[in-house]
Amino acid sequence: MKKRIVGFTISAVAVIVVAVASYVSFKVYSANAQIDKGVAAKVNNEVIYVGDLRQSYADHPQIKDKVPFEEFYAKTLDVFVNSKLVYQAAQQARIEETPEYQRQLVTAKEDLARKLYLEKMVEEKANDAAIQKLYDDYVSKFESQKEVKAKHILVDTEEKALEVINKLGRGADFVKLAQEYSKDQVDLGYFTRDMMVTEFSDAAFNMNKGEYTKNPVKTEFGYHVILVEDVRDSKPLELKEIEPQLKNMVTQQVVAEVFENLRNNAKIERYSLDGKLLPEAK
Fold first, then answer.
1. What is the largest CA-CA distance in the chain?
2. How many alpha carbons fall within 13 Å on the CB side of residue 61?
3. CATH assignment at residue 183
């Protein structure tokens, strides 16, 4: 048990260190980071501020959601120190004067400019109003379907399925039997007919609430004993349930519109490898 705990701790730390190391290797903090004037470290008299680590922490929501800043600080301070040491060594080696550095610097600047421009466009246009509009469109086009909520017990043989059905007939609890027999998850939640294989759907949608199959249902997965817990007409999902997906869709739309508008308002000439002008892309 102890080994497993130690292994988990090392893995968690490794995730944090790798994530931050990839970040601080190129991130240049502004002078505003020094607002938090606590000194985190000094590397050959060059100061790393607590604010530098706070900024990195804020820029990593996937880490921020899992560990408090104090733990992040303790695990990553040496990452910042090592990063500073390597940068100082690179300066002493005059790496910034090399042609390769200058070439990659141009690429990095362009990449950053593109990223910030697209983020700006998304922030302006992928707003609450755009998300609400997409949600309203989804609701207006929503077509209600019959839904079934069910549990099932999946076994390998018809004999076992019949054994389960016989026990249900004698009053056995479905969930307890599932824990004993089933090789799949028990609770399937709500589903429409097209979400399940045909044989399963045909059986489930021909039963009433509270009924279970009196004969095993054979599918490609094995033999099922199905319990129908509820039958209803489907309704549109609430906005809060699908807001992340809608925001992602709006973001994709905004980015696509940006590219389309830029291309429509630009003069673009494309050439083949032998220097011939290519026809306009459609």
1. 84
2. 0
3. 3.10.50.40
> What is the token pair recorded at 249?
């869709």
Q: Domain range holding 151?
A: 146-233
Exposure pattern of 171-205 as b/e (b: 16+ CB <10 Å)?
eeebeebbeebbeeebebeebeeeebeeebbebbb
Residues 173 and 130 in one domain: no
Phi/psi of residue 6, nearest 5 degrees: -60, -40
Cβ(51)–Cβ(34) under 8 Å? yes
* 112 in a structural domain: no
Whether residue 135 is found in the same domain as residue 178: no
Supply 178's token pair: 């599932």
Q: Are residues 272 and 151 in the same domain?
A: no
* pLDDT tens sequence across 152-187: 999 999 999 999 999 999 999 999 999 999 999 999
31 and 165 inside one domain = no
Cα angle 260, 138, 236; round to 5? 155
Gap between the Cα atoms of 131 and 247, Å rounded: 6
- The per-residue pLDDT for range 196-239, each reduced to its tens digit, is 999 999 999 999 999 999 999 999 999 999 999 999 999 999 99
Rama region for 44: left / alpha / beta (φ>0; ψ in -120 to 50; rest): left
Q: How many residues does the chain have?
A: 282
In this structure, is residue 111 part of a structural domain?
A: no
3-class state of residue 255 by DSSP: helix
The answer as to whether 109 is a domain residue is no
Sign of CA pseudo-dihedral 256, 259, 262, 265: negative
